[in-house]
Here is the input.
Amino acid sequence: MDLFCFEITEEMEEERIDKCLAMLIDSLSRSFIQKLIKEENVKVNGSIVKGSYRVKAEDKVEFFLPEAVEPDIEPENIPLDILYEDKDIIVVNKPKCMVVHPAAGHYSGTLVNALMYHCGSELSGINGYMRPGIVHRIDMDTTGSVIVCKNDIAHNCIAKQLKEHSVTRRYHAICYGVLKEDEYTIDKPIGRHPTERKKMAVNERNGKRAVTHVKVLKRYKEYTYIECALETGRTHQIRVHLASIGHPLLGDEVYSNRKCPFKLQGQTLHAKILGFRHPSTGEYIETDAPLPEYFKHLLEVLD
Here is the structure.
């Protein structure tokens, strides 16, 4: 069991204990924290508390987090669209509706299940049993390039490049509305949404710097086909940034309340270009993931 200890700051005063802990620990859901409280596993100033308790400044909160029982992750013979592969890395063109790594509700049919079948034991172990080889990810309904590492040396090298923002990542997307300028740079910090914790938002107070460079590829009557180059890599960065300037991605059901006139599954977003230094040779490698059929068909319809 892991012991968590926190001291409540003035900014959190009068928040309910479950909401407060959900804000402090990004990886835990509020419902899970409520379960811990109900089972009398949370203490404030040494005493067991109830879920209705509202915290006070300088309260000392502590609780034990039970060890998670990891489900068996089985290799599955799922076809992979491989863009590049050698002894160190593999770059895969991920299809729509595929989750990158197992999580609650998605323990099969993921990219990891497919990779375990294809690569066997040749996947890095740095991110643990549930995410072998995974050094970065894209959303379930986002298609395109994902780089996977086959050993820990490669993993550390690619992770360092991602942290330094030296990896080339260019996405193609379709957004609502007609962008007036040919190029935009959106420089707005992104952090957790203040009230909806499963969403991200432009957050001037607690967000981290996020920069997206947008280039218009083609304008249509009501939409714009764009390329987005990431200077940083925050969660949902492109989706949040485009929504923040009034041009959410077509089909985005999380960051747009507009009714989509096309039969789409989630946002029209494709990780097309991925460039990086090879972890062994230092050579610059760039892959180009072809647009998925639904995306090409949609562009034909718009034309």
Remarks:
- DSSP finds six helices and 15 strands in the chain.
- The chain has a mean pLDDT of 91.
- The first strand starts at residue 2 and ends at 7.
- The two ends are 58 Å apart (CA to CA).
